[in-house]
Each structure stands twice: as C-alpha cells, then as structure tokens.
Amino acid sequence: MLHLNDQSLLRTRAFVAGSWVEEPELGEFSVFNPADDKVLASVANTGPKTANTAIEKAVVAMEGWKRRTAKDRAHILRKWFDLILTNAEDLALIMTAEQGKPLAESQAEIRYAASFVEWFAEEGKRAYGDVIPAHAPDLRLLTLKQPVGVVAAITPWNFPSAMITRKAAPALAAGCALVIKPAAETPLSALALAELAHRAGFPDGLINVVVGTDAVGIGGVLSGHPQVRKLTFTGSTRVGKLLMAQCAATVKKTSMELGGNAPFIIFDDADLRAAVAGVMASKFRNAGQTCISANRILVQEGIYPDFVRELTRAVKALRLGDGRDPDTDIGPLIDGAALDNVDSLVRNALDGGAMAMAGGQASVLGGQFYEPTVLVDVTPEMRVFREEIFGPVAPVVRFSSEADAIAMANDTSAGLASYIYTQNVSRIFHMADVLDYGMVGINEGMISTEVAPFGGMKESGVGREGSKYGIDDYLEIKYLCIRGG
Ligand code: ADP
C-alpha cells in the first residue's frame, strides 16, 4: 500500500464526466512497482464503451468551455498548477512507485509537468487572430483562432505526468475538452492529476481519463470517433503510424511525438568534462527510457580515449536501486520485456565486436535492473546503433572527420533530438544547419523546457509541444472575408 499525505489522490477508477467509473464486466488490472514487482493497486479495467461515453461527455462540456473567456479558463488552469505543486510530494511518490524512476527525478518531472499548465494558462490569452491587408479595396480580411474540437490524448509510461500536461494544458487553454488514455503501466499518476483537475474546478466532462489494458480497442475508438477532431500521441513510432492511418478515415488532425535515435557528437575541441556531464544527463536519466536520450555517442578520434576513460569512470559510479532510496541514481526498467530488449541489443553489439567498458548485462539485483553500460567500438551495422535503446546503455562510436559524423548522425529515419559538443562557433552553426533533427542541444544535454518547442522531423513526429507554438496544434484558423465598409 502506498502511503501518501493525501490518500484521496490514489484513484483507481476511470474519470468520466466528473465521476469515478468502472466497467464491472471488464474487471480490474494490476499496477506493479517495477522495483520489486509487487502489486501497487488494482485499477478498474475500462474499455471502448467508457471511451465512447467519455467522448460524448466531452462534446457537451466543450460547448460551455469554449465560450468562456481565455482569462476565465486561465484562472482554472492556474488553480490546477497550484494544486499540482502543493501536492508534488505525493505525486512524485506515486510516480516512483509505478514507474521506477528515482524520487528526485519524479519530483523534477512533477515540476516540469506543472510548468506546462502555468505556461499555457498564459498562452491561451494570446491566441490572436490577424487583420490581413486585403486584395481588393472594399474587402476586409480577418482570421480568428478557434479550438480544434474534442481532443484525444494517448500517453506513454516513461513520463507519466508531463506527457499528459504537455497535451492537456494547451488543449484546455485553447478551449478544447479532452479524453486521455494513459499507459496501463502508469495509470495512477494520470488519475491523481485528474483528481486535482476536479478540485481545481474544471467543469465535469472537460477532462476524462480512460484507464485500461485494451489499448487497441480504446485507441480504435479515440482515433475513429467522428467527434474527436484531434488526436495527440506520444509513444512508439510503430503505434504512431498505426494511429495516423486510423485517423485518416475521419481526417483528424494529429500531433505525434514518436521515437528518436539521438546522435550525441563530441568533437576533438569539446570541453571533456562538460561532454561527459552532458552524456550522463542525457543518457542515464530515467534509466535511458526517454525519446531524447543519447542513443549513439559519436566521438572524434583525438578525444576518444580520454572521453571513454572519463565516461566509464562516471558510469561505474552510478548507483542502481529502488527509486524510493535517496541514494539511487538509476531505477529499474519498466518491465521484463524492456530488459530483454536492452539485453538483446547489448548481446548483438558484443557479438559484433563491441566491448563493454562498464556493465554489459542484467544486474545482480535481479528483477528489471540492468547495469549501466558503456559499449566501445560500436559500428553502424549493429542494432544498438540503428534502434532506439530505451535503457542505460551508452554505445560509443569513433569518427574522424566532421563529414563522417554528419553522415552517421543523419543515417536514420528518426529526427527528434541531437547533441553536439564543440567550442568552434562556425562549426556550431554549420552543424545546426545540417542535422536533420527537430532539436539540437549545443554543449548542453538537458534541453526540455516548457518555453521551447519540443518535436521531431522525419519519422519522429508531427507538430511541436510547449512554447508559443504548442497551442497552435489545438487551434483552427478561420478566415473571414467581409465585403463592405
Ligand atoms: P511504449 O513502447 O513507450 O510502451 P507504445 O507506443 O506501445 O510505446 O505506447 C504508448 C501508448 O500507446 C500507451 O498508452 C499504450 O497503451 C498505447 N498503445 C499501444 N498500442 C496501441 C494501439 N494499437 N492503439 C492505440 N494505443 C496504443
């Protein structure tokens, strides 16, 4: 049993139209703590029926919400923001318990999650239209920004709170209602946010959370229902493509935050200590289970030996353990399948001639703990170079010229985050130009913030989240052509 300051944040039913609901015929599903595999909670298993009801309720709730002033909406969002921060300790405990990340990271995620609510509460007030100089003397041309309609949000387990607020806050600020389907691994964080949204005073039906194990069935309703006008998704590229195809039948707008394969390029002239610190932050946060994790560390030959030595030293100092222990740097992976996949990528690299300077296997702690790993002599043929690792494994690849680094970096269908470390200003601008990525960290490994646009190119996604651009994904532009005057 999870002990919280406010036990009523621990919700185990779906949230629809302001009520906690279940579908008795579907029973319950268990939520596990990945650190010890113990059952944390039994949650009502809801499915397509609840998803349909939630959409109907959202349609009704949106009618009133979109007519309110942006300032009025901002006021309620601000209350939600305050409540998230006031309850940050409990929300972080829930997150660590169901997701496994160290408590300090959960606390940081709660602050990050809250920051989107604060930001978009303000941005909603600035959804300006335009007055356009007309093409004829007796015409007036105007644009209005209007909410896109009911939004469906499907979110992953790696950032169980932030991936919800990054979607819900701009949607709500724009005047939309939404139906959220969190990952079945981490429903408790989503439901706690819903409880706080309820307390903040959002009208019933405006925010709904459908929890369940039938991702295909629920996803089918959310992507197929004609009254959902926008689907926003964070998760795997495979499922993202599927959902885009399903959304085509009703021509829904989509936002997609999909997989990455981030190159982390370190040139000979880089500040070695900064580069190692950047890799540690980008690669090992959340046990490497982030879509902007350094996936391929490309190191120029001159700095390669020093870099490998220092990285290995830093990785060997990481403490693996239960996220609730304050000494823990890295928690467990989300489940056994994740561990098996990470291990198979490492085996494939070792079989192909790579060498493990640290780690290289599952931990003696057992369960879903994987040793923080440094692989050297990695080559582009290995799976670890081509696939998203989603684990605490740092593959190091040697390169000689800048042109080689660029070719290797762009040799992927992904295009989310990239990183470069160099002191050379002209190289910084050249690399920023030629990298086919939505985001470039330059001498910086931690790039996420609510004030900047997060998103990918190529198969990493569609749309941007956060920043002044993030609300556009939830707004339609309506053009008015007025004769006379
Ligand atoms: P991950 O590898 O991070 O688990 P997924 O893409 O499998 O990524 O999951 C992200 C979200 O998508 C989760 O909420 C999951 O339940 C949901 N999901 C998985 N498969 C489908 C599907 N076929 N249709 C709709 N949603 C899905």
Short description, anyone?
By secondary structure, the chain is an alpha/beta fold. Helices cover 38% and strands 20% of the residues. Strand 15 (373-376), helix 12 (383-386) and strand 16 (393-399) form a beta-alpha-beta unit.
Folded structure, characterized:
- With 485 residues, the chain is α/β, with parallel strands linked by helices.
- It has 2 domains: 7-259 and 460-480, Aldehyde Dehydrogenase, Chain A, domain 1, CATH 3.40.605; 262-413 and 417-449, Aldehyde Dehydrogenase, Chain A, domain 2.
- Helix content is 38%, strand content 20%.
- The protein is built from 14 helices and 20 strands.
- It has a 7-stranded mixed β-sheet with strand order 14-15-16-13-12-17-18, with helices on both faces. Strands 9-8-7-10-11-19 form a 6-stranded mixed β-sheet, with helices on both faces. A 3-stranded antiparallel β-sheet has the order 5-6-20, with no helix packed on it.
- β15 (373-376), α12 (383-386) and β16 form a beta-alpha-beta unit.
- The longest helix is centred in the first third of the chain and has 21 residues, at 103-123.
- The mean pLDDT is 98.
- The chain binds adenosine-5'-diphosphate.
Describe the SSE topology.
Elements: E1 14-16, E2 19-21, E3 28-32, E4 39-44, H1 48-67, H2 70-86, H3 88-99, H4 103-123, E5 131-132, E6 139-147, E7 150-154, H5 162-174, E8 178-181, H6 187-200, E9 207-209, H7 215-224, E10 228-234, H8 237-248, E11 253-257, E12 262-266, H9 272-284, E13 294-300, H10 304-316, H11 336-351, E14 355-358, E15 373-376, H12 383-386, E16 393-399, H13 402-410, E17 417-421, H14 425-434, E18 439-442, E19 461-462, E20 475-483
Parallel strand pairs: 7-8, 7-10, 8-9, 10-11, 12-13, 12-17, 13-16, 15-16, 17-18
Antiparallel strand pairs: 1-2, 3-4, 5-6, 6-20, 11-19, 14-15
This protein binds adenosine-5'-diphosphate (ADP).
